[in-house]
Specification:
The protein is mostly helical. The chain has a 3-stranded antiparallel sheet with strand order 1-2-3. The longest helix is centred in the middle third of the chain and has 20 residues.
Length: 421
């Protein structure tokens, strides 16, 4: 028997004229459109006994009168078998419509799958989560958060239509195999990177967990499913040599966009400001302390955490260079897609062979500019606006130069110590 996925919507829209009644033993290859959905929605293997008991359990709701149902209290199974002999599989006059078996299947649909129009289903819950994220943009969610949820919703919908031939599924139809098949679909069919697949699966788990908490699902699906590990990434900070090449590269005057891209990158190296923040900070984010030093204080678009960094002279030069009364922001708007493209050009102009991306500047601030200068990692965490110092540890990597310097300091500080055993 072919390993097919059973579809209830196809079943109930079809008539039952071709139902095979001549053979004593039901053949699922002939009757799959009628029987298979009530048979378990599982892997396509035939479960005749399960189906038989399931149908008999529901005959009372369709083929029997109220008086007949009352008589089933003590001997329901035997009486149902007897009653089944009189079931009409096909109503010849109505071409299959209105027969008892059709009524049973329709009842099974409502019982097993529920009313797809009224109940909270997987795709409806996904839409609700996406709408919630969209509504919170600018409040406690960054604009860049929404696309990840949006594309997950598109991929999930495509998977359900491809695999199950329906547009939605009830939470009661989900099995543990569902999330494994969805992972395989996103990885193999769509060709997504492991980190993208991990995000999609994390959102799916979040949706199912929320459905369970709100009472839309009887169980918390996939709560024990382990997300695939994130791909290992090499440290993103620039080397001192690469940083100096970018800082000192000569850019022709007529290449204004390349110059702006380089200056935005350098400003991030000196302040740790991400792209989403550097294009939105204004003069209102600049503060002068009691000693006359200028600080940049802002709430990050990503998580609304406050970041505070004392501006280095190099950063002040860049702010003054792009100062304009015609706009509110400190720097001109530079669209992300254009900035990414200019990063590649900047690497070529500076003679850097490795790929260059804007976020490396934030890593370079943590490792190259601050940590190597002796700034404690706790302070760096506050400058970057991190909520967890473990996140800062990913950014602030100890370079060999820093390691040697710290060891020299340690040796110098302990040269007069005597070890007593």
């Amino acid at each position: 028997m072919s390993n097919k996925i059973w579809n209830f919507d196809i079943l109930v829209d079809d008539c039952f004229v071709n139902f095979n009644t001549k053979k004593q033993e039901i053949n699922p290859d002939h009757n799959d459109r009628l029987l298979s959905v009530a048979n378990g929605f599982e892997d396509g293997s035939w479960r005749y006994r399960q189906f038989k008991e399931f149908v008999f359990s529901n005959i009372a709701e369709t083929a029997l009168s109220a008086q007949e149902r009352e008589k089933l209290i003590d001997n329901d199974y035997g009486r149902l078998i007897e009653a089944a002999k009189h079931l009409r599989l096909v109503d010849k006059e109505q071409n299959g419509k209105g027969s008892e078996i059709a009524e049973i299947i329709l009842y099974v649909k409502d019982l097993f799958q529920g009313s797809m129009e009224t109940q909270m289903t997987l795709m409806k819950m996904t839409d609700a989560v996406c709408d919630d994220i969209k509504a919170r943009i600018g409040i406690d969610r960054a604009k860049g958060t929404y696309p990840g949820y949006h594309y997950m919703r598109l991929t999930l919908g495509e998977f359900i239509e491809t695999k199950y031939k329906v547009k939605d599924l009830a939470f009661g139809q989900l099995t543990e195999q569902f999330i494994h098949e969805y992972q395989a679909f996103a990885t193999e069919e769509k060709g997504y990177a492991i980190d993208t697949v991990r995000h999609h699966l994390a959102v799916l788990k979040k949706i199912c967990r929320l459905a369970y908490k709100k009472g839309y699902s009887e169980k918390c699906h996939f709560q024990h499913f382990a997300l695939p590990q994130q791909s290992e990434r090499t440290p993103r900070a620039l080397s001192r040599e690469s940083f100096e090449k970018i800082r000192d590269v000569k850019i022709p005057v007529y290449r204004k966009s390349h110059m702006l891209a380089r200056d935005l990158f350098l400003f991030a190296c000196y302040t740790g400001v991400s792209y989403a923040d550097v294009v939105s900070i204004t003069n209102e984010n600049l503060y002068t302390d009691e000693n006359g030093a200028l600080w940049l204080k802002y709430r990050r678009k990503k998580n609304e955490h406050r970041a505070s960094v004392k501006l280095l002279p190099e950063a002040l030069v860049l702010i003054n260079k792009y100062h304009s009364e015609d706009r509110e922001t400190l720097f001109p708007l530079f669209r992300w897609s254009n900035l990414r493209r200019h990063m590649k050009a900047l690497a070529a102009l500076a003679g850097i062979k490795d790929d260059l991306c804007y976020h490396q500047a934030r890593h370079s601030f943590a490792s190259l500019i601050t940590l190597e200068a002796g700034v404690p990692i706790e302070t760096i965490s506050r400058m970057l606006g991190h909520s967890d110092i473990s996140t800062t540890q990913v950014y602030a990597r100890v370079s060999p130069k820093k390691l040697f310097e710290d060891m020299d300091k340690f040796i110098k500080a302990t040269k007069d110590f005597q070890l007593t055993l």
